[in-house]
Design a protein that fits this description.
Elements (H helix, E strand, L loop, with lengths): L2 H16 L15 E3 L4 E4 L2 E12 L4 E7 L2 E11 L6 E8 L2 E2 L3 E2 L6 E4 L3 E7 L5 E14 L6 E5 L4 E5 L11 E6 L8 E8 L10 E7 L4 E7 L8 E2 L5 E6 L8 E6 L1
Parallel strand pairs: 1-3, 2-4, 12-14
Antiparallel strand pairs: 3-11, 4-10, 5-9, 5-11, 6-7, 6-8, 6-10, 13-20, 14-19, 15-18, 15-20, 16-17, 16-19
The structure holds calcium ion.
Length: 261
């Protein structure tokens, strides 16, 4: 080994020795850093206490949807206090580009459910009688992950409409967007798309919109579409639904508009 090569080699060894260990993952916050008290919402934080009507009552047939977005891959939920009845339910699932994972019911105080997806969906489904509130805590931990949630909305009015992209123009490549429709006054809204302009392919494998209907305590995919053909309307008979939009890495278009009432 000549002297230059030796120095280079020693420098390499020094750098390799000094290199930090691979990040094993971020621990959970010791205590929730945020507090959420609304019926539904977009919660983007590393930890939160979600407290809805604790010690108070919740009307029959109420639906609330929280889209919860942690910075790390693992989202743990712990039920701290609950006045919910057997006929009510708090449900958790994960959301990613590939869809929505199976619902898990958070029913017992002290119970933990961990969602291994950066985006979790928490759904409160109240039975046909008034009930009492609850409190749960959420903690994000683990390795960082750069999956995007390029758009989101929570539509809670009795009727409304929505356009994406919000400011017009073309949607982006590699989009992964999620929109929840859950009127806070219980109802059975019907969702109608009024304009659709997406990249088209026969299986809608490039860009697509999927509509999920909250039914029997699960989000059932009722339609997946692309191109410019308006799909048939969907009635959310159990009071809530989701619209999920994903795009691939090339060819964009002008997106979509829908209304519900
Ligand atoms: Ca595309």
């Amino acid at each position: 080994m000549n002297p230059v090569a030796c120095i280079v080699f020693l420098a390499f060894v020094a750098v390799a020795t000094a290199a930090p260990q691979p990040l094993q993952g971020q621990p959970e916050d010791p205590n929730p850093i945020d507090t959420v008290t609304t019926c539904g919402g977009f919660v983007e934080t590393s930890s939160a206490s979600i407290e809805f009507q604790v010690g108070g009552s919740i009307r029959a047939d109420m639906r609330c949807v929280w889209i919860i977005r942690g910075p790390y891959v693992s989202q743990r939920f712990n039920l701290v206090q609950s006045g919910l009845k057997e006929t009510d339910g708090l449900f958790l699932s994960g959301h990613s580009r590939s869809g929505i994972t199976a619902q898990q019911k958070l029913a017992t105080v002290g119970q933990n459910i961990t969602i291994n997806s950066r985006t979790a969906i928490l759904t409160l489904s109240v039975g046909h009688a008034p009930t009492l509130g609850f409190k749960l805590e959420f903690f994000s931990s683990g390795s960082s992950e750069n999956s995007v949630l390029s758009g989101h909305a929570l539509l809670t009015t009795a009727k409304g409409n929505y356009t994406y992209p919000v400011n017009g123009g073309q949607y982006g490549n590699n989009e992964n967007a999620l929109f929840a429709i859950a009127p806070t006054v219980p109802g059975q809204p019907t969702l109608r798309f009024t304009r659709v302009n997406l990249e088209n392919d026969s299986g809608c494998t490039y860009d697509s919109i999927r509509v999920y209907n909250w039914f029997d305590n699960d989000y059932l995919q009722v339609v997946r579409f692309c191109g410019t053909t308006i799909p048939t309307s969907v009635t959310f008979q159990d009071g809530a639904g989701l619209v999920a939009f994903v795009t691939d890495s090339s060819v964009t278009s002008t997106g979509f508009e829908f209304q519900y009432e």
